[in-house]
């Protein structure tokens, strides 16, 4: 059975379709992911052997690879949204969960690189939650 996932950036300049199944879902707290996301972690899905098709805006994509590492990011040059990275050499596509417009049928499997998490990333589950912006 083939799984088709669709996604886009915030400004909708870039749209894509991914054919394949997500086999891993990690919340990465490494300093690199924190810097590129501006948050406590990146939520990345991994699809081995998937096919990534850019439907629009491929010319709007920018790519960054941190020298001498496997760390790379693809992002919209207009709005800055993280977009999928086709890591052909590794045989997988890495998809930021937040750029998907379709449902994800897998839940996060682990928090990773917790040894480099931000010092403020403690007991986040203990703070109040709101349906919207608090008054």
Task: Outline the structure in words.
There is one protein chain. This protein is mainly beta and 135 residues long. The protein has a single domain (4-117), classed as Metal Binding Protein, Guanine Nucleotide Exchange Factor, Chain A (Beta Complex), CATH 2.170.150.70. Helices cover 5% and strands 38% of the residues. It is built from 1 helix and 11 strands; from the N terminus they run E-E-E-H-E-E-E-E-E-E-E-E. The strands form 3 sheets. The chain has a 5-stranded mixed β-sheet with strand order 9-10-4-3-11. A 3-stranded antiparallel β-sheet has the order 1-2-5, with no helix packed on it. Strand 6 and strand 7 (72-76) form a beta hairpin. The termini are far apart. The mean pLDDT is 93.
């Amino acid at each position: 059975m083939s799984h088709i996932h669709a996604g886009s950036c915030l400004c909708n300049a870039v749209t894509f379709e991914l054919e394949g199944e997500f086999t891993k879902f990690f919340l990465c707290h490494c300093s690199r992911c924190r810097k590129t996301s501006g948050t406590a972690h990146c939520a990345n899905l991994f699809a081995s052997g998937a096919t990534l098709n850019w439907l629009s805006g491929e010319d709007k994509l920018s790519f960054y690879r941190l020298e001498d590492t496997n760390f790379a990011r693809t992002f919209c040059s207009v709005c800055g949204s993280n977009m999928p990275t086709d890591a052909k050499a590794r045989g997988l596509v890495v998809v930021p969960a937040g750029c998907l417009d379709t449902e994800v049928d897998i839940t996060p499997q682990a928090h990773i690189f917790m040894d480099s998490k931000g010092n403020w990333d403690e007991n986040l589950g203990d703070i109040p939650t709101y349906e919207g912006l608090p008054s």
